[in-house]
Design goal:
GO terms for molecular function: aminopeptidase activity; metal ion binding; metalloexopeptidase activity. Keywords: Aminopeptidase, Hydrolase, Metal-binding, Protease, Signal, Zinc. This is Aminopeptidase. Belongs to the peptidase M28 family. M28A subfamily. With 297 residues, the protein is α/β, with parallel strands linked by helices. The strands form 2 sheets. Strands 1, 2, 3, 6, 7, 8, 9, 10, 11 and 12 form a 10-stranded mixed sheet that branches. The protein has a two-stranded antiparallel ribbon with strand order 4-5. Helix 2 crosses helix 8. The chain starts with a strand and ends in a 7-residue tail after the last helix. It binds phenylalanine and zinc ion (3 copies). The site of one zinc ion has 6 residues, from loops.
Length: 297
């Protein structure tokens, strides 16, 4: 099933941003073992406009099903889909607030606001399940696309860890301009990277190129040639002296010292990073949702 945004016009009242549910919530993924915390984000999307509370499901049956939750704008050319995604699951060791409540909050906020806007292109949001078990939710989704459906997805933007306490502002290096030797993304990924670079330049924040090796849910998308990009503030890697000079924070310490641990709680969020990156997400969503030209794969 798919969650569809209400068609309400801006200014029509409190119902403007309500999101309607059609069919069953989420796309069941078959037989995926999940032993992690999940959030009832679909219910919250459905109740947009009310206070968002996240309910934790600590069920640990290794054979239970998990779900991807998909939300899509009702307006915009259905043949030109601009897609954003983040994973909702965490590792079993901790609540996963930076990894990846942060990215999920960023796209959820964008999705809720997007409900009141007309768009030229179709906007689709994915809240992936089972990323931590090997990108299972996103891989299942991409594998299930027909060639026709796949061709409609013009770009995919991924947000996995966007508020690390000792953060850098990382932009996926889709063109390997940092010459790390990592394979560059599909054609068009360079353009997405440049979009984010110009955003950070405009708001006067430093940025750096970061890992684009497929270690998150964009992997299955670039695997089938869909241009992709995204933001990342760092995981278990250690901040260098140069990075500390550029971004502040502590050299010689992990970007996220609570990565995949019990201490990945609300206290593990850098508010400034969350705000800056959520602004980047919303800007990217609205610019691409309205753009006449989209990255050429
Ligand atoms: N996908 C990793 C996770 O969820 C996070 C990560 C992304 C780490 C990219 C390194 C590089 O744990
Ligand atoms: Zn993780
Ligand atoms: Zn993650
Ligand atoms: Zn680059």
């Amino acid at each position: 099933g798919v969650i569809i945004f209400n068609e309400g016009q801006p200014g029509e009242g409190a119902d403007d941003r309500r999101i309607l549910l059609t069919g069953t919530l989420g796309t069941p993924t078959t037989n995926i073992p999940v032993v992690s915390t999940t959030f009832a984000v679909g219910d919250e999307l459905a109740a947009a406009g009310t206070t968002v509370t996240l309910t934790a499901d600590t069920e640990s049956d290794p054979h239970r099903k998990t779900r991807n939750v998909l939300a899509e704008s009702r307006r915009g050319d259905p043949d030109k889909v601009v897609m954003l995604g983040s994973h909702l699951d965490s590792v079993v060791e901790g609540p996963g607030i930076n990894d990846n409540g942060s990215g999920s909050a960023g796209i959820l906020e964008t999705a809720l606001k997007a409900g009141a806007l007309p768009t030229r292109n179709r906007l689709r949001f994915a809240f992936w399940g089972a990323e931590e078990l090997g990108l299972l939710g996103s891989a299942h989704y991409v594998a299930g696309l027909s060639a026709e459906e796949r061709a409609k997805i013009k770009l995919y933007l991924n947000f996995d860890m966007i508020a690390s306490p000792n953060h850098v502002f990382g932009i996926y290096d889709g063109d390997d301009s940092d010459a790390t030797g990592a394979p560059a993304g599909p054609a068009g990924s360079d353009e997405i990277e440049q979009f984010f670079e110009s955003y950070f330049t405009t708001i006067g924040k430093p940025y750096t190129g970061t890992d684009f090796t497929g270690r998150s849910d964009y992997g299955p998308f670039i695997g089938v040639g869909i241009p992709a990009g995204g933001l990342f503030t760092g995981a278990e890697g250690i901040k260098t002296a140069d990075e500390a000079a550029k971004f502040g924070g502590e050299a010689g310490v992990a970007y996220d010292k609570c990565y995949h641990q019990a201490c990945d709680t609300l206290a593990n969020i850098d508010d400034e990073a969350l705000e800056v990156n959520t602004g980047a997400i919303a800007t990217a969503a609205f610019v691409y949702a309205h753009s006449r030209t989209l990255p050429e794969a």
